[in-house]
Design a protein that fits this description.
Length: 186
Amino acid sequence: MRKAIKNQGKILTAYRLGDGSETEMRLLEEGKLRRMPDGNYEVFSLEVKNGSGEIAAVGDYIKLSSDGWPYPNDKAFFAANHRRIEGDTYEQIPKPLDAWTAEDGMVPEIAYLIAERGLVIDEKDEEKYFSAPLWGTTLSAARDAVIVFYQVKRDEHGKITNADFNFVAKNEFDRTYSWENTSEAE
């Protein structure tokens, strides 16, 4: 498993769901966000392929990718990893994260995701090579995507008990992350 880190000093805009920002209203009109009857939101990120959006709660945040797709961030995760500068402008606090690509070979964390978290690797489909139930829907990603682990929990014996992860499309990963040791990633 390699380490990746969000690019240093990244300044971004983010919006808290339910605040009624202009961006939230625009995304609702564009169909990239949908309010659900239970008060939650469906967020239609680039990786949503099956018609059901990722589920986010009021108070969670959305960040926009460089090409305008919304990505949900749990409010606790967002608060721990971002610093408000002013208004809707935040600085992302970079931390090294475990990251994996299809070329990296099998590791215990990926084996855990396959066995326990529903990760499917379809070697016959380059565009939907990875799929997994994430954010209340099934997301898929191309073979060149990166699986980023936000947290891996282990018991006292080192056995993995849970893992928070997501797919990051290669073009978005290349724009927003760096490999800690670039010689390993080349």
